[in-house]
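Backbone shape codes
____________________
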Amino acid sequence: MIYTFADLELDTGAFELRHRGDGEVIAVEPQVFDGLRVFVEHVDRAVSKEELLDSVWRTRFVTESALTSRIKAARKAVGDDGRAQGVIRTIHGRGYRFVAAVGHRETSALGAVDGAPVYEAPGPPGAPASPEELSSREVEVLQAIDRGLTNAEIAQELFISVRTVESHIASLRRKLRVDSRAGLIATARQRRRPTVQVPQNSFVGRGQELVTLQALLARQRWITVVGPAGCGKTRLALEAAVADARAPVVVEMEHATGETVGDALAQAIGLGVDGSADVIAACAVALDAEPRLLVLDNCDRVAAPAAVLVQGLMARARSLTVLATSRSPLGGSDETIYALDPLPVAGDMPTPAVQLFLDRAGSAAPGLEFSEGDVGLVARICGRLDGLPLAIELAAARVRHLPVAELAVRVEDGLRLLGRPGPASRHRTLEAAFAWTWDLLDADERSVLPQLAALPRTFDLDLVDAVVGPGAAGVVLGLLDRSLVSPTVGASQPTRYRLLDSLRSFVLARTDATIVHRARLAHAEYHAGRVGKLADRIRTDDSRSLVQEARRIAREVAAAIDWAAAEQAPLAVSLGRSLAIILEQIGPDPESLAALARAARTPAVRASVTATDLYEIGK
């Protein structure tokens, strides 16, 4: 479209303001040209400052003074001034109005109109050029326009003249079939809008978690999804990105280092940044062009640098929201933590964990049917795998070759059965997923975690101090942050913790037998002291709190008896005497009675027991 007023014409197709007589082009900034275009398109009314800011700068934040300076430049370009206001008039309290008489005419697709240059677009109307048809320099100019740079700023960044920039812009408008700078920006965004690569299989068992995460994304600007290896953090984040209205950018941080987190982001958004540039600032400008959801996946190895990156981006890009995934928080002051637990393995059948297994098994072996008994075995398998989606998917893939009953037996024996073909990655096997986290542990954490894995059941911080040594509680809290230790379900006081059984197996496979022996001995001795005192009290104190403590400790003592019967027979006898007194007061517990029976059949225990011991145990 060509708009005419006074002795000038505004050609939106050629992106030119020129004199009508000789066709001489009047050089103006892109924002000045776009402002004039808005005025002539709405010549019948006043245009508010807010409308101008939105039309010219879109989502990029600029001050009102920037608009004022562009209005002044526009008046100068069209021969107007602030006093006469014969073309652009200030309407106090309402904005501006274009008061000059305006005519217009369409440009022809076959040639020039009244001698004005017309660019003939290749291909059918609306068909933009493919990426191969743009030169590398044109791509750079288009990206710079998308970031909101002026022609002068583009020239400075690319070390070319402003005239050359204008030539590239004219070429881009012809190739991409757009008639304004705003059209170039829209086309650039469409070209770079990434497609989130989400696995094509169904998303099972996480519906409520997705709803919760979406609610957080609507309220908070930085959310980090944390959880143990294989619990589905990445998949949940990708599903949230697909469902979000904001334009997504997904950056995989698995292979990034502390020095390259910014480069990884720049590469993901197609931003070329040289070594001397402020990468965070440049990325922030690009990301702030429109509302964005930035997904930083797998930040485990670069938590601190990633936190610096996010904080720098958020300070500069006000329309940006960040969703990170990691096995531990990144540590930012504005970070909101969303802890993702494994899938539930208990409850009404089929549980979410069982649903996932059946879905993936159906894909691995189409037509395979599961009986009611098979479903029960699947529930057992999912329980052994702690409800970890990765482990469940790996196990379900084995139904192609193993009956469910045999799979259930083999999963009980260890995790080496679980793997998938393909290139090495942290998700190829469950062991690889755990090894990824193991490699991140410091010396203290690598010392404490094997001792926790050696404990037969749950533990509190007092037991940790007894087994590992004073001061170990701080390390345990660090392991909690790494999602390697989890609090147990319930409101027990003091808080008790656990390791996932699958993680326990992984750690114990890498733990020296002497470390396991020392930890189990310390566990048994600790409970021998506690259960002895408890046995003395419970005969005269039947308070509810003491009975509850006795019921909980009974199973810990049973586990200690099983170990001591083979390693420290006199200690097993002492534990057995106190446990028998407790059971006499609170009633029988099948697990505890079974442990006493097993110890009684052990030759070393039978050789150590006295008549008094037998009398106390048998009462």
